[in-house]
Design a protein that fits this description.
Helix content is about 80%, strand content about 0%. The chain is mainly alpha-helical. The longest helix has about 35 residues, at about 300-334.
Length: about 325
């Protein structure tokens, strides 16, 4: 019955519903990740600890789910490839998508929050994502960059430079914010790589999210545990209070990975990687307002200008994508 009800909704409705959920979680993610990683707030977990909680929390749900999908496929006589009996995707696709979307993204983004404030992430994370996605989609998928889209990407670059460029200049005075800015840019590139790969292979939302979590669980959880237990890395996942660990596992793992991972991939499935990331134009503004109101971060002129430029650039991208979207909707309705 639930499947029947689901089929009542058009692809457009499902795509926009997925966009709303993704925007809300991504906005909260920026604020909570900074509050958890800010050294001045006395957090007990390191960025690598939080990545551990994220992967473990997601794995508790997704690995049994993946094993069930693999078992069901085999029981129904399916010949689809799987990896380790857990990932419902082939080993090659699991490793590629998992490296960018599951493992490297988490390590880079949480490390970035240890150096740079949420306001910087508000501009550089959602702002750089359309930039990297458009460039990668043009290179790997052959998508055309229209003059309007190029104008939007130019505005995003200017906004990023206003934020990251000034931080880089302050590095000569001993500042470390620029390190966080660089890490945010690299994290956005990793997520863009995952989104383009998901589109290229026409991946199912649930199966793709399970696959990227499988690789992270297999590689990171045992590896990091050994490094912490042997004292090679100073981590606190085995000594921190349970409430801190459970909160991070719930929000970072269940919310940021399971829920938003599925909704984001669902958007890619319906609208493509470029338009999907453009839909998240509200994230920079909402997260910036949250950083000012909830975290007490100052909104300096370069941050405000960068925020405006990035948001305008994203909106230009949406405008450039509208003709393509209209053609797809017309073809669907016909």
């Amino acid at each position: 019955m639930s499947a029947h009800k689901l089929h009542r909704f058009s692809p457009r409705s499902l795509g926009w519903a997925a966009a709303v959920v993704t925007v809300l979680i991504w906005t909260s993610f920026i604020l909570i990740a900074r509050a958890s990683n800010d050294p001045a707030r006395g957090g007990v977990l390191t960025p690598f600890d939080i990545a551990f909680c994220r992967i473990l929390g997601a794995g508790v749900i997704l690995l049994p789910w993946g094993a069930y999908l693999v078992w069901r496929d085999r029981a129904q006589g399916g010949v689809g490839a799987s990896w380790l009996g857990v990932s419902p995707l082939a080993a090659g696709i699991t490793v590629k998508t998992g490296f960018f979307g599951g493992l490297l993204y988490a390590l880079l983004v949480y490390s970035g929050f240890a150096y740079a404030p949420a306001l910087h992430a508000s501009v550089l994370l959602p702002g750089s994502l359309p930039l990297w996605t458009a460039l990668l989609a043009a290179w790997l998928l052959g998508e055309r960059l229209t003059p309007t889209r190029l104008m939007g990407l130019g505005l995003i670059v200017l906004g990023d430079l206003l934020v990251g460029g000034l931080s880089l200049l302050r590095a000569f005075d001993g500042g470390q914010v620029w390190l966080g800015d660089v890490l945010f840019m690299l994290a956005a590139m990793c997520w863009a790589s995952y989104s383009v790969l998901a589109r290229h292979h026409s991946l199912d939302a649930v199966r793709a999210t399970i696959a990227i979590t499988t690789l992270a669980c297999v590689v990171y959880l045992p590896g990091y545990s050994v490094l912490v237990l042997t004292g090679v890395v100073k981590g606190h996942v085995f000594t921190a209070p349970w409430r801190d660990l459970l909160f991070q596992a719930a929000f970072q793992g269940w919310g940021s990975v399971v829920v938003s991972g599925i909704t984001f991939t669902q958007m890619i499935r319906h609208y493509g990687p470029v338009r999907s990331t453009m839909i998240t134009a509200l994230v920079p503004g909402l997260s910036a307002l949250g950083a000012v109101a909830l975290l007490g971060e100052p909104l300096r002129w370069n941050l405000a200008a960068g925020l405006v430029l990035v948001t305008l650039g994203i909106l230009f991208g949406v405008r450039a994508s509208l003709p393509v979207a209209i053609k797809k909707e017309a073809a669907y309705s016909g």
